Fold each of these.
Amino acid sequence: MSEAQMKVSDEIAISIENMNKWYGTFHVLRDINLDVQRGERIVICGPSGSGKSTLIRCINALEEHQQGSITVDGTLLSSDVKNIDKVRSEVGMCFQHFNLFPHLTILENCTLAPIWVRKIPKKEAEETAMHFLEKVKIPEQADKYPGQLSGGQQQRVAIARSLCMKPRIMLFDEPTSALDPEMIKEVLDTMIELAEDGMTMLCVTHEMGFARQVANRVIFMDAGQIVEQNEPEEFFNNPQSDRTKLFLSQILGH
Amino acid sequence: MSDTPNIGFVRHEPIPPSAPPIQQAGMVKWMRENLFSNWINSILTILSIYFVVKIILASTPWMWNGVWTTSSLRECREVLQGTSGACWSVLAERWNQMLFGFKYPVEAYWRPTLAFVFLLVCIAPILFQKLPRNMLIFSAIYPFLAFWLIWGGTVLTPVVVAVSLIVGYLAFVKIERLTGFAAGVLSGVVAVALVLYLGSFVTAALPEFIALEPVASRDMGGFVTAALPEFIALEPVASRDMGGFMLNLILGTVCVSLSIPLGIVLALGRQSNMPIIKGICVVFIEFIRGVPLITLLFVANVVLSYFFPPGTNLDLILRVIIMITLFSAAYIAEVIRGGLAALPRGQYEAADSLGLDYPQAMRLIILPQALKISIPGIVNVAVGLFKDTTLVSVISMFDLVGMIRGPISSSTAWTGIYWELYLLAILLFFVVCYGISQYSQWLERQLRTDHH
C-alpha cells in the first residue's frame, strides 16, 4: 500500500476534549483527549473492561458522556437530539455481533437508512446498495435474509449497510471477535480496502497484523485511560509503559 | 513402540453424498410406536378408544333422531315419544334471533349479512400479504360502510367521520414533516375534532350517536340538516336493537382492531424514558389488569355517564366497546412488552447508529420484530376477548348468550331447552376462534426468516 494513497489531511474529523464518563459511580472513561484527522486510521486496543468500546460508542452517542466535549465533523455532541441524529447519519458503525435486521433482506438492510434518513428514492438507494454489496463481494446474496449467511458474510453486509449512508467516518467495535478464523480474513480484507480508499476509521480490535498494515496510529487503553499512543512500528517494537509491554507480550506471545 | 500403528492418513477422494436411509413406514409401525409402545400406553389407548366410542354411540342417535319441524318443546316431546332425540326445531325457528337479536328488523337482515360478507373481503388483504395491495382501499372504507349498513341512517354520518379522519391524517403528514412526530399527532387530533364538530352541524344523525351538544348543533345547523337526515338513508336501527351473534362479531372485531394499536402505544409508553408518560401507562395497565372485566362492563353501563358533561349521551355499545378495548389493550400491551424485551439491545443500537429517529426505528425495525414474537400472545388475548364479549349478556345486552338466556329460554314454547341452543353457540364461537388460531400459526410460519 503506497503512502500516497493513505494521506492524512490536516482537517480535524473528531475532537475529544477532557471527556469523562461514569456508569453509576464507576468511572469508565477518565480524561480522554483525542484528535482524529480526516483520513486517519486508528486502532484502539487494550484489555477487556479498559473502556475502548465505550470510547467509540460515545463518538456516535450510543453512550452518553458526562463531562468534556466531543465534536464530530464540526458538530458538538450534546443532549440535542438534532445534533445526535446529524452525527449518527455521518458516522457509520459496525458491531461485534453485526446487528443486521433479521426481518429484512440483505438489500433492504442496506437501503433502509438511505431511504428513510437521507430521503433517497428507492431505485437509487438500491443501486447504491448493490454497488457496495459488490464492493464487499456478496452481491449474489442480496435477496437472502441475514440468518441464511455466514458470520463473515453478515459482517461484510453490516459494513456495506454503513457505507450506503456514505459516512465520512467509520467506527468498528471488535468487528472480528465473533468470527471463525477463516472468516476473519475476509472481513479484514474488506476493511483494508476501505482504508485504502481514504476512509477515516477508528477500530477497536485485537488484530495486530491489521494494525501494523493499516493503522497510522495505535492507541492503548487501560482502566479507562489512554496509556500510550504511537505509530504502529514504534508501538509494537518499542513500547514505553510497563502496562503496554505486558499487554503486548500476552497477545503476541503465542 | 514398534507396535504403534501407522496413524498417517490422507483422503484423496471425497465421499460423495448419498440418499438417507429409507424410513420404515407403514400403519403397523406407526401404531406400535405411538399407541402401543409399552403396556401402560396400550391400556391408555384402549381406554381412550372405549370412551370415544361410548360418547359417539350415545350422542349420534340423539343428534340423528332430532326433530326439525315442530313449533314448541312440548310438540317435540310428543313427536319423539320418549326416545332419545334433539329438538332442533328451536334452531330452525329462532336462528334469526340468535344471529341478529330479537329486535333487529327482519326486512333489514340483508344489511348485517352484507356487512359480514364485506368483512371477509376487508380483512383478506390485511391477513394475506400476497393479495393485491389496492384491496386495502376497500379495507379502509369498510368500517364506515359497515357502520352505515348495520346502523342505517344517512350516509352522511360515516362520510363526515371518514372525511375528518382523512383531514386529520393529512394534517399529521404535513405537520410531521415540518416540526416532528408529536406535533403531527397533536395537529391531526385537533383536525379530526374540528371536522367532526363542523360535521355535526351538517348531519343531525351524528349528535345522536356521539352527542356533541345536540341542542346547540340542532339549533345552529337546523336549517341545513332538516332535509339531510334523509340523504341516501337506510332505515335507522338503534343500538339497543342490536343483538345475537352479530353483536358478538361487532364487539369482537371492533375491539380487537382498536386494542392492538392502543396496546402498542401503551407498551411503548411503558418503555419510555419520560417519567410522566411511563407512569401513566404503568398505572393504567396495572389498574385495568387488576380489575375484572365484568366490573368494567357495569361501569360502562351505569357509571360512565357521570364522567361526561351533562347532556352527553354516549351510546351503550360505544361505551361497552371503549371498556372492552381498554381492558384487552392492557393485556396486549404486556404481551408486546414481552416481545420488545426479547429483542437484543443491538437492534436498537443498529437502528440508532444508522441515524433513524425514534418513530422510524420503532416502525421499521423494532415493532415488526417485536410483534412477530408477540403473535401467539396477541392471538391468545384476541381469542379470549372475542369469547369475553358474551359477558355483555350480564348488563342486559342480548348477544348470542344473552338471547339464549333471555328471550329464547324464557319464551313459553321453548322454556327448558338448553343443549341444542348452547351447542350452536359453541359451534359458532369455535369456528371463529379455531380459525383465528390456525391463521396465527400459518402467519408465524410465513414470517420465519431464519432458515428456509
Note: The mean pLDDT of chain B is 83.
Amino acid sequence: MTRPLTIVSLILSIAGIAVAGYLTYVHYNLGALVCGIGDCETVQASKYSEVFGIPIAILGLVAYIALAGLIVARATMPDYADFASLAILFILITGTLYYIYLTYLELKVIYAVCQWCVISFIITVLLLTVELVRFRRSMNEVDTGFDATEG
Amino acid sequence: MSQRPPKKKARKKTQVNKPGTQQPAASQETQADAASSQETPKATRASRSAEQRNARRAEAERKAKQKKQMQILGGVVAVAVVIAILLILVNRPSNSGLDIDYEGLAFAPPPITLTDGTPAATPQSDETTTDPYIGARLGNPDAPVTMVIYADFQCPYCRLFASETQPKIIEDFVRPGKVRLEFREMPILGGSDLTSKSNESSMSAQAALCAAEQGKYLDYHDKLYANQKGENQGNFSEKRLKQFASELGLDTDAFATCLDSGRYIPALQQSKAEGQAEGVTATPMFLIENGTESSGAIQMTDQGYDLLKKQLDAAIETAK
C-alpha cells in the first residue's frame, strides 16, 4: 500500500516547494527595510537567514525540489527505489534537525516567529513521518512478498 | 542497487511457499521464471526438501536484508546529524558587539539643554544649544554633507543598518571627511508614551543619551544593538540598561541618576516630533542634507547600501 503514501509525499513536497519559493521571494524582495509600518520581516532580515551567504529559504527550496524529484524517480524507476528512499530519508532527517535549531533561534534569539517558516517545518515533519511509515512497511513486506503491491 | 538480486530471490521463494497467493499482472513474468526453475514435477520429495532449504535460506536473507536496511538507515541518520550540526555551527548566535571601528573620528555629543537650562553634555565651543534637536554626531564637522539617522534601538532593521550598512558609510564617506553622521532618536516601537518605564524604545534612547553625558554615546549605541532581542519584553529594562552602563565602564551612579531622572524625555519627544514633521514614519529613516537641500526622509531598501551610496554621492556633488 505504498501508492497512496507516494501521492501524500508528492503533495507535501510540492507544498514545500511553494512555501520555500515564497520565502525565497520574500528574502529578495523585502522592499523598504523599516520598522513601524506593518511587519518588520524580522526573521527574513536577520543575519541568521543566510548560511555561507546562501539564503536558508533557497536551501529549503532546493531540498523540496530534490525530494519531489526523488519521490517521482522512486515511483517510476523501481531499480533505484531503495536508493531514492534512503536519499529522501537523509534529506528529511537533516532538514528536521536543522529546523529544530532554526525554530529555537526564532523563539529564543530573534524573538520573532515567521509563520511560513513554521509551516515549512510542519511539512518537513509530516513528510518524514510518511517516509518512516513507508520505510517500516517496506521492511515488513520483505516477509510477505516484498513488492507485491509496489508499482 | 546491490540489494536488488536478493530481493528478487526472496520474492520467488514466497511465491513457491504460498501457491494460493494472488499475484498481480506485473509479477507474472517472475512467476514464469519460477516455474521454469522447477521443470521436473515428478521429483516432488526432492524439490520439497529443496524448497525447505530455500525457504530457510530466504528467511536468513530476509533477516540479513532487514539488518542491512537498519544499518543503512543508521548511517543515514548519522550523516544527517553531522550535516545538521555543521549547518548549526556556521550560523550560531554570538554575543559579540558590533565591532565598528570609530578610531580617529571626530565625535560631538548631543548639545541638549535640559529643562533646568543646563547643557546636558558640553557643547563644542563653536555651537550653542539650539532649538531643533541635534543628536550625537560622528565625523568631520566641516563635512559637506550630513546624514541624519532616525532610529529606534528596538528596531531590527536599525540594528541591521548599524551593523551592516553604517560601517560601510563610515569607511567610504565619514573617514574621508565627506559625510558627518548625526544620530537622532525615533522611539516609536515602545508605544506613544515616552514617559513610561516599560517603553523600552524610550528607555534605551534615554540610556544612550545618559551615556553621551559621559562621552560614550556610540559605545552605548553599539551595545544596545548588539544586545537587541525582541521588543518590549524586558530586554532593555531599567536593570539591564544599568548593567550595560557598568559593562561599558561608565560611572554607574551618575548613569543611574540620569536614567532615573527621565531628564531626556523632553528631548526624545522633540526629536520624535521633528522627525515626524520631516516625514519619518518608520525606522530607520534618513535625511541627507548638504546645506542647500535635503533629501527628505528616505528609507533603507533591499538595495541596501548601493542606493544610499548613490544618494550620498549626489549630495556631495551638488554641495560643491
Note: Helices of chain A lie at 3-28, 42-45, 56-76, 81-110, 115-140.
Amino acid sequence: MGSSERTPFENPVVEWVDSRLPVFTMMQKEYGVFPTPKNFNYFWNFGAIAMIMLITMIVTGIVLAMHYTADVNLSFDKVERIMRDVNGGWLLRYMHSNGASFFFVAVYIHIFRGMYYGSYKQPREILWILGVVIFLLMMATAFIGYVLPWGQMSLWGATVITNLFSAIPLVGDSIVTLLWGGFSVDNPTLTRFFALHYLLPFVIFAVVFLHVWALHVTGSNNPLGIDTKGPQDTLPFHPYYTMKDTFGTLVFLIFYAYMVFFAPNMLGHPDNYIPANPLVTPAHIVPEWYFLPFYAILRAITFDIGIPFTDITIISAKLGGVIAMFGSILLWFVLPWLDTHPIRSARFRPLFKTFFLILVVNFIFLGYVGSQSADAKLFGLPLSLLGLAGTAYYFAFFIVLLPWLSKNEKGRELPTSIHEAVLEQKKG
Amino acid sequence: MTADSKNRRDFLHLTGAAFGAVGIACFAAPVINSLNPAKDTLALATTEVDLSTIPVGESKTVMWRGKPVFIKHRTTEQIEEARSVELAELPDKEEDKDRVKKEQWLVTIGICTHLGCVPTGQKTSDAHGEFGGWFCPCHGSHYDTSGRIRKGPAPKNLAVPPYEFVSDTVIKIG
C-alpha cells in the first residue's frame, strides 16, 4: 500500500488520481499483471464465486432490510408483505434465502479444494486460518438470519441452538439469558439478531479482505502443490483468470438462478411458513442443510463421559455433544500442524487422497444422519450408532490419521516445475 | 539507557496497559449488561391465574416470562401414582410432595429440560408418554404425573416456578 515505484499512466485523469492515491497501480499489480500459476483447474474458481455470492447477499440483504421490521408481532407479516406486495420482493427474498445456500455450496467446495491440494500448508497457514474464521462467521450469520422471518423453525431452531450454551458448566444458564435478553427466545432476541445479522456480513467482508491480502503475499497454491519458480510457471491474472473466473461464475449462477426461479423453497422447511408459536413445538426440528453434518456430530454424543465404575459424570451427554460439534470445526484451525507432510497436493499422496475422499463421503453421510429424526434406522441399524461411527472417523482422520501419514506416507515423486508438468501433459 | 530507566519504562508500559485494559473492561461491562433482560421484560415476571375454571383431570397452559406454564388439576389416582414411585427409580430424584403446594395442583414450567421444546400432554387427547404425564416430541423424553423425567435424554424434571396461593383458587406465579 506504500508509495513505492510507480509507472505513470497515459490518461491524465487516471494519472492525477494515481499519483495522489495509487489505487490504479494497486489494481494493476494485484489483479492485472499479478503472476498466477498457469495450471489452475476449475476448483480454483470458487474463491471468486464465493466473493460474488457475498456481494449478492449484502446487496439483496440491504434492500430486504428496508422492508423488514424486527418485532415478534410484525416480522412474519413483514416478510409475507415482501413476498406479495413489495415490487420484486419475492425475487429479492428468494435470491437471499437461496443465495445463502449457494454461498455455502461455493465455500464448501472452496474448503474441499484447500484440503485436497494442501493449500493450508506452509507458507499459507494464516491465509487458511482466516478462511476458517470466515466460515465460522458465515455459520453465525446464516443461523441468525434464519431466525428473522419468525416462523416456527426460526423460533424453535433458535431455541434449540441457544439452549446448547446452557450445557456450559456453572455460567451456562446466565449466558443463555444474556443471549436471549429475557427468559425465552422472544422480542429482545429477535431485535439483537437483526442487528447482528446486519453487522456480521461486513465483518466477513473485512476478514475476506485480510484473506485476499494474505493470498497476494504468498501467491496461490496450484493443483500440483509445488511452488512457482519463475515467469514460465505463471500467467498474468488478467485476462487469463479474470476470464476463467467469469466463465466459472456464470456456470455457477445458472444453477443458482434455476433454484431461485424454479425451486425456491426446495431447500427450506415448510414449517417456517407457520408463524412462530411459543406454545407449540414442531414435531421434527432440523437445521438448514449446510449445518446438518455438524448437527449429526452434536447428536452423536448421547452418553455421559465419567469416571468408570462410579456415578461421577465429568462431561454430560449434552456438553459432550456441544464440545464435539464446536471441536469438529475448531480442529481446522490447527490443520496445518496436524498435517505436516512436505507434499501439498493429494495427487502425489495416494494414502492421504484415499482417506480424505472417505472423509468427504463420511461428511456427506453425516449430513444425511443429521437430516433424519433421532430414532431413525438405516438397514436395520440405529442411525444414532452410524452417526457416532461417522463422528469417530471424522475425528480420527484429523487427530490420528493426518499426524500418522505425515510421518509414514512416502508419496510420489514431484514434477520439477509447473512449466514442465504442463508441457508433459500436453504431449500426453 | 541505564538499567534503572529501563525498569521505569517497563513499569510505565505495564501500568499503562493495565489501566487501558481496566478502562476497556469498564466500557464493555455496561454494553454487555444492556443485553441482559430489561426492566419491562422483568416486570412481566408475575402472572395471576384463577384455578376455579380448571376441572379435575384437566390442565391449563398460561404464559409466564414468555414461557408456557402447565397447571394440572390432578386426580386422586394421578397423585397416588406420583407418590408411589421409589426415589431410586428416578433420574432426577425428587419427592412429589416437594414439587407441589397443594397436592391436587401441579404447577410446572412447560419446557423440556433437554433442549427447550414444549412437551405434549396438556389436552386429554394428547400423547402423555409412558408415565401418564407429558411427552416431548423433539427427542422423546417422558415425564410422569409429577412432571418428573422418567425416560429419554432430558436430564432434569420439569422445573417448578416460584408461585404462591393468593386465595384458595388463585395463584400468583413469579
Note: Chain B touches chain A through 25 residues (CB under 8 Å).
Amino acid sequence: MTPGARQTFPSPGERLLRAIGILRARWLFRHCRCGPRVHTRTRVRVDARGLVELGARVQFWEGMIPQELVCAEGAELIVGAYSLLNYGVSLRASRSIRIGQRCMFGALAQVYDSDRDRTAPVIIGDDVWVAHGAIVGPGVTIGEGSVVGAGSVVTEDVPAWSLAVGNPAKCTPLKRER
Amino acid sequence: MRFAGASFMAAGQGPVRRLLGALATRWRLRRCASVGPGAVARGYIWVHGRGSVHVGAGVVLDGSHHPIELHAVEKDSQLFIGDGALVSGGVSIESVVSVHLGARSRLGGFSRVMDNNFHPLVGDRLVRPPSSPVRIGDDVEIGPRAILLAGSQVGSGATVGPATVISRRSPVPDGASASGMPVVIA
C-alpha cells in the first residue's frame, strides 16, 4: 500500500519533470520543514508563519487551482509522508492540523481548525481519503483508513475504517479487506 | 438551436473582435477531437488526456474566471458535450470510458462530473476501480459545486441543486429535481 514501495520505471523526460518538481518544492517550501523528495509541479500558496512540516514524498498535483497552505503564528501544520494533495486543496491552521501518512486529498478539499465559534485541533489519521470538495471543520478527529465522501462536511469525529458522507457527515463502517 | 449564452458572449463586438474570438476558441480547443460550429471558449480550457473530447455546436465554455478541465483519461475514452450546452468556470469533467452531456444542458460553477471514482473505498487506494459511464440528458440544469460521481444518470429536463452529490445509487429520472446532501429526489 505504500506508494513509495511501488516499482516504477519512469522515462528520462518524466525523471526530468520530477527533478524540476522536487527543486520547485524546495524553493516554494523553503520556510517549511520538508522531508526528502517533496514534489510539486504547480504553484502553491504558502503562508508559513508557524511550523509547517511536510513529510517525505508529499506530492502536490497539478491542476486548475493552486493549493493553499496557511499556518498562523505559533500554529502547526503537519502533513505525513507519502500524502497526495490534488489541486485546490486548502489547509488552514490557526492552532494545529496533523495529517497522517499516505493520506489522499481530492480536488478542492478543505481542512481548517478554527471558525467564528471555536478553535480546536484537527487530527487526521493514516491512510485517510478525503474526496473531492469535502470540508473538515475544527475539532474533528478522523481515524485511520477512513473515507470522507465527495462534497461532505465533517463536523464530528469519524472512527477508524468508516465512510463519512453527507452534510453533516454520517458515518458507516467500511468493510475491511483481508 | 443555439443557446442564448453564445449570443451574449459575442454581443457588442465588431467583426474583427468576433474573428479574433473565433480564432482564440479554435486555439483553446485545439486538443479536442471535434468542435462544432459556433462554439465559444473563453479563458483557459485545460483539455488533456489521451482520449477524444467532442464539443458540439454553439457550446459555451466560460473559463474566463476559473479554468475548465476536460480530461479524457485513456486512449479510447469519450467525452461528449452536446449542442448548445453551457459549462461554467471551475468545472472539471473527467472521463475514463464515456461521459455524455446532453444538448442545452448547463453546468454550474465548480461542478464536477466523473465516470470513475479513481480510488476504491477498501483495499489498495492507488488501484483504479472499474468505471461506469455517466449520461446526462438534454436541457439539464446542474447547480454550482454539484458532484456527479461514477455511474450517475440524469434524465432530460432534470434539475440538480447546488452542491448536490449524485452517485450510481441515486439516478435522477426525467424532469425530476434532486437536491440536498444526502440527495433527495422529488
Note: The first strand of chain A starts at residue 33 and ends at 34.
